[in-house]
Amino acid sequence: MSAESSSKLNKLLRDQPAGVVLCSAWLVDNGYSNDLQKRYKNSQWFESVGTGALIRFGDQVDYLGAVYALQTQLGLSIHPGGKTALALQGKSHYLELSPKHAQLFGDQGEHLPLWFKKRDWGLSVKCALTNFLPPELGLIELSHKQFKVKVSDPARAVMECLYLAPKSQSLTEVFELMEGLNNLRPASVQKLLEACKSIKVKRLFLYMADKAKHDWVNYLNLDNVDLGSGKRSIVADGVYVAKYQITVPKALEALA
């Protein structure tokens, strides 16, 4: 390997943390040609994890190392959300030692690269692409291994759970998650509620926060929150909650 190639390799190894995916297109944009990448692979500095993606040779890369690449190299808004984001922040009541599922969210019009979808990350990864919330709102940076990824903050994560409910997410479980969020910042919740496009999500969020008797609810200004008009039946054969004009599961309404 030439001195120039070796110097560029050292810079790449120094600047990029271990445990992450490196996208070939991003490498090309930063001066690492496809030919140079091939030489690095032949010299066993890097190995392919699918078309268009590399990792350090022998490195252990999980799905968060791939999400890092999606966010920092491809400029996507895809991030861990819902129960996954809460679990990563230690705010999930069901914390699994080795989770079997990961839920990602991204903006409408984005897509996961083929290398991400084809790779076995050791768990099932689902991705919901939706614009019910702005892609930049309600995200925080979380440290993982030697790098950071953006994940949903607790308020956004609960809203994402409610977006998936009741079809893909139990409403009673979401309420149990909501019960633990007694220290949300009203200003942050206010911004999310004002920006949220889903009437269902907003009504359920406020209903659950009310039911959990969280103090921060008292500091919200609902005059600026569009809660729509008319009744919403979230489930069939449920209980009607007049204050929020929603029909919720009997088991949820029965919870103290």
The strands making up the biggest β-sheet line up spatially as: 1-3-2
User: Taking all residues together, what is the mean pLDDT?
Assistant: 95
End-to-end span in angstroms?
A: 68 Å
- Could you list the spans in which at least 5 consecutive residues all have pLDDT below 50? none
Rg for CA atoms:
22 Å
Q: Helical percent range?
A: 25-40%
> Biggest sheet, open or closed, and with what strands and sense?
3 strands, antiparallel
Count of distinct structural domains = 2
Q: In sequence order, what are the helices and strands, one letter per element?
A: HEHHEEHEHEHEEEHHHHEEEH
Figure out the total of helices: 11
Task: Indicate the proportion of strand residues.
Answer: 15-25%
Give a quick precis of the structure.
This is Transcriptional regulator AbiEi antitoxin N-terminal domain-containing protein. The protein is of the alpha+beta class and 256 residues long.
Description:
The chain has 256 residues and is an alpha+beta fold. It folds into 2 domains: 1-61; 76-225, no CATH class. The chain is built from 11 helices and 11 strands. It has helices at 3-15, 24-29, 34-42, 63-72, 82-88, 114-118, 154-164, 171-179, 186-195, 199-211, 250-254; strands at 22-23, 46-48, 53-56, 79-80, 101-106, 124-129, 139-144, 147-152, 232-233, 239-241, 246-248. Helix 5 runs antiparallel to helix 7 and helix 7 crosses helix 10. InterPro entries: AbiEi_3, AbiEi_3_N. Residues 6-97 form the Transcriptional regulator AbiEi antitoxin N-terminal domain.
